[in-house]
Amino acid sequence: MRYSILLLASLLLAGSASADTIQTSTSSDNPYAKTYVKHSDAAASTAAPAEPRIYRGSNKQADKQKLLEDGYGLLGDSEFDAGDVAPELLAEQAKAVRAELVLVYSRMTEMNLLGQQQVPASKKSEGSSGEQPQAGHSIPVKAPRYSYFSSYWIKLPRPVLGLHVMQEQGTKEGHAGLPVLAVVNNSPAAAAGMQKGDILLRLADVEMLTARVLAASEQHLAGKEVELVFLRAGSELRTKVKLNPLP
Questions:
Q1: pTM (two decimals)
Q2: Domain total of the chain
Q3: What is d(CA 57, CA 105) in angstroms, rounded to the nearest whole number?
């Protein structure tokens, strides 16, 4: 099963599923919808995109990191094993969750035996040699199965600080804080020099214990210049950062 790295309009024409597999579905028979796991409600606060952009991904972790740094939020993902699945079904699910961008990954996992196909006996070609298939001879007919994974993304509003952090409290060398998973490009956090792997300790005078505390602090401190305290390689660093106003 192939997906072209094109916009949706081109994708629907370029999928490898045959025309007779293209059909309208409901969530109960759409594997992308049936296996969807929601990660956030970010789409609820944004306008629905005109058409989702669907691309074939190359590396799940690297692709995810890049999208987080580019200011996208992960809405959810789907994962399943199946035979050929029409690209239209992925487009349906992308629209249903209001995704702006979708990455899809697929790889062949096995060939399933469908049955036996009868091969009629053929006459020996003039000048040829060797045995020809006999009447009633059969050969196995196989169909491929694939492992599918798709992730659904939406462009987030301009961030107040610009960090993606672990949801739970993290610890490192005796310090509590929030491990940084990604720093949004051109954000206040990026301007402050924060990097993936840093541990956010405090914003202003608020100790960062959970992602909820960080979100509440961003709401309260938006637009202000505050002190940012974080840990890197065991050393505590302090800097001033001018937070963006609320979008």
A1: 0.75
A2: 2
A3: 6
| CB 238 within 8 Å of CB 227 | yes
Asked if residue 109 belongs to a domain, the reply is yes
SS3 230: strand
What average pLDDT score do residues 44-69 get?
A: 88
Q: Give the CA distances from residue 64 to residues 21, 46, 57, 76, in Å, rounded to whole numbers and listed in that order.
A: 30, 21, 10, 12
CA distance linking residue 181 with residue 73, whole number of Å: 13
Q: Tell me, what's the pLDDT at 116?
A: 56
| Span 116-127, pLDDT tens digits | 556 565 544 444
Residues 142 and 213 in one domain: no
More confident residue, 96 or 114: 96
53 in Cβ contact with 123 (< 8 Å): no
Comparing CA positions, the residue from 214, 123, 227, 202 lying closest to residue 168 is 214
Q: What residues make up the domain containing 202? A: 163-242
The CATH number of the domain holding residue 199 is 2.30.42.10
Buried b (16+ CB within 10 A) or exposed e, 171-194: eeeeeebbbbbbbbeebbbbebeb
DSSP states of 33-83: HHT-EE---GGGGSPPPSS-EEEE-S-HHHHHHHHHHTTEEEEEEEEEEES
